[in-house]
Structure formats: structure tokens, C-alpha cells
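R.M. (postdoc): so does anyone remember the format we settled on? I'll just put the C-alpha cells first.
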């Protein structure tokens, strides 16, 4: 199988689905002539034409609204929000419209669309190009929220998202675009939405994470293994709905849980996972559930030292693992 980075895997998924299904089209800011700010849609305009690769104005509510309308008329839109930081103007369209069409129509209508958004810090993006916004969407029934950590999953999950009958928010960490490489099959395949993946089996601590933090957590787990600490790393992959079976099953095996995510601690997805474990696996715990997240600050700074202070890394995760193991 060819070795691809994540941006190449995403481009491959879009190409394969557009070639296989004429209902699939992409829209967003600079997705056509430029090929996207990160080049995820590079070459698609030449291959499929301007009717299926649509450059949009800087109007995120319009991008989401057009995608919703197209999906209701039988198409399969894949909308790109240039940065997750810019998704806020589209929240009304996503939460109040896309997520609720199946309910409000008593199941007569579905809204099959994908909204892709690069998220995460560590690329000197400062205030408006560094945010992790997944918690804005993981509390809304009717949506699925996905965040892959490998090129293989990026392609398989994106194809599954495009084929899904309901709206999917698809977050892609910017540091992984060209920082992660792996084998990716040619042709279409899918990975199941709503299912986590055991990236590393272990017996002493369950570590739940996603996106870039999955890669950092694996490195941290290998570091502490030398000291006899055996960590099981669960890559959630789908953030809503959570894979409850994988989470609870792992905690019942290890007795200790650490949740790692890049978003701020307060209001982040880790709180929901903590509650799930406390309510349904409390008797299995040998220690309090621990969360490791970015600090509760207003924004990510442009300054190198301040950005590094904000960001989690394998060393910080390894320290959190050691502290939990010593409890």
C-alpha cells in the first residue's frame, strides 16, 4: 500500500467518493482554484469541474446553509470551513438546522452532509487559527463528530462520513496533515463511525484521547513502559457518539483512567467522559479519574514560549501517567 500523509489521505477519499458518486461535491473558501488553504482539494477542480468544486465567499453561515439545502435535495455535500476557528458564524445553521432535520420531520428527511474543519494549535496560528472547537458540537444529538489521528483512519472515516445519512463534523488536526504518514489502501474503504480503536493494549491505566494527542499519548506510553507502567491507549476517533463500550470495558480492566485532549479543561470533552466512567464504572476504579488538557486561558498566544506552555506534549502526558500510576 502507498504511504500517504493525512492531507493526501483526505484528498484521496474526496477523489474516490466524487468519482464513484456524482452526488458528492465539495464547497468552501478557496477549495477550487487554490485547492484549499492546506491543499486538501488540490486537483479536484481540474478533474470534476466547477459544478462540483465550488469556491465560496467568506461567509461560513452561507457555506453551511448551502450544504444543508443541497443535502435536502439529494446531494452529498462536503463543506470545508477553512479553520475551525471560523465555524462560529455557521453554528446556528449546524445546530439548529442540520442536526434537527431528522427529528423535526419525524424521520421523513435526512441531512447527509460533511463539514470538514482543520483544528488545533502548535502551528503558530495564534488567536484565530489554533482553537479546538469540538466541545461546541459534542453535546448536540443529531450530529456525529469525528477526529482521526492517522492517515488510514482519515480516509476510511471520511468516506464513512460522506456515506452517512446524517450530518458529520469532521475535525482534522493541522499538525497531523503532514506530520503523520502511514499505509493507506488505494480505492474506497470505510472505518466505522462511533467506534474507538485500541492503539496500545495495557493493563494498568486506560488513556482516552483523539487527534494529535493520540500520537503524543502513544509516545508517552512507550516512555513510561520502561518504568513498568503499562498503559492502554484508546483513540476515540468518534467524539459523538462516544464508544461507551470501549471506554467502560477498558476502565473495568485497568482500574485507572486518564483523559487527554487539547481543548481547555473546563467544558472540554474530558468532563463528559469522566462522568460516564463515574456513573457506570465507579466500582472498578482504583483512583480518581484524571484529566489532562490545555489551560483555561482566553486564546493561544503567537509567542513561541507561551504557545509551548499551552500545548500538551509527550513529556507532559508521561508526567500525568506517572502521577496517576503512583496514586
Amino acid at each position: 500500500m502507498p504511504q500517504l500523509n493525512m492531507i493526501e489521505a483526505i484528498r484521496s477519499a474526496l477523489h474516490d467518493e466524487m468519482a464513484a458518486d456524482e452526488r458528492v461535491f465539495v464547497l468552501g473558501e478557496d477549495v477550487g482554484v487554490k485547492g484549499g488553504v492546506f491543499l486538501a482539494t488540490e486537483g479536484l477542480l481540474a478533474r470534476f469541474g466547477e459544478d462540483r468544486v465550488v469556491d465560496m465567499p467568506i461567509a461560513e453561515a452561507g457555506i453551511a446553509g448551502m450544504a444543508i439545502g443541497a443535502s435536502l435535495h439529494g446531494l452529498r455535500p462536503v463543506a470545508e470551513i477553512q479553520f475551525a476557528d471560523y465555524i462560529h458564524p455557521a453554528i446556528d445553521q449546524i445546530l439548529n438546522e442540520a442536526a434537527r432535520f431528522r427529528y423535526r420531520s419525524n424521520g421523513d428527511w435526512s441531512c447527509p452532509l460533511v463539514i470538514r474543519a482543520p483544528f488545533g494549535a502548535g502551528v503558530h496560528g495564534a488567536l484565530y487559527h489554533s482553537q479546538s472547537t469540538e466541545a461546541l458540537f459534542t453535546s448536540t444529538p443529531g450530529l456525529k463528530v469525528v477526529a482521526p489521528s492517522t492517515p488510514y483512519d482519515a480516509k476510511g472515516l471520511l468516506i464513512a462520513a460522506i456515506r452517512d445519512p446524517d450530518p458529520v463534523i469532521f475535525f482534522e488536526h493541522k499538525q497531523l496533515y503532514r506530520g503523520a504518514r502511514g499505509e493507506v489502501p488505494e480505492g474506497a474503504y470505510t472505518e466505522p463511525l462511533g467506534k474507538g480503536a485500541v492503539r496500545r493494549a495495557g493493563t494498568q491505566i486506560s488513556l482516552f484521547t483523539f487527534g494529535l494527542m493520540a500520537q503524543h499519548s502513544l509516545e508517552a506510553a512507550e516512555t513510561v513502559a520502561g518504568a513498568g507502567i503499562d498503559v492502554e491507549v484508546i483513540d476515540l476517533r468518534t467524539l459523538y457518539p462516544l464508544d461507551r463500550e470501549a471506554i467502560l470495558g477498558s476502565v473495568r480492566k485497568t482500574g485507572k483512567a486518564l483523559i487527554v485532549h487539547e481543548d481547555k479543561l473546563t467544558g472540554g470533552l474530558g468532563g463528559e467522559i469522566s462522568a460516564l466512567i463515574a456513573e457506570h464504572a465507579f466500582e472498578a476504579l482504583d483512583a480518581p479519574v484524571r484529566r489532562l488538557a490545555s489551560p483555561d486561558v482566553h486564546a493561544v498566544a503567537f509567542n513561541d514560549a507561551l504557545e509551548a506552555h499551552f500545548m500538551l506534549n509527550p513529556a507532559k502526558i508521561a508526567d500525568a501517567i506517572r502521577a496517576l500510576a503512583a496514586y
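R.M.: ...and that's the designed sequence above, right after the C-alpha cells. Also worth knowing: The chain has two domains: 3-183, 197-325. Residues 6-20 form the longest helix (15 residues).
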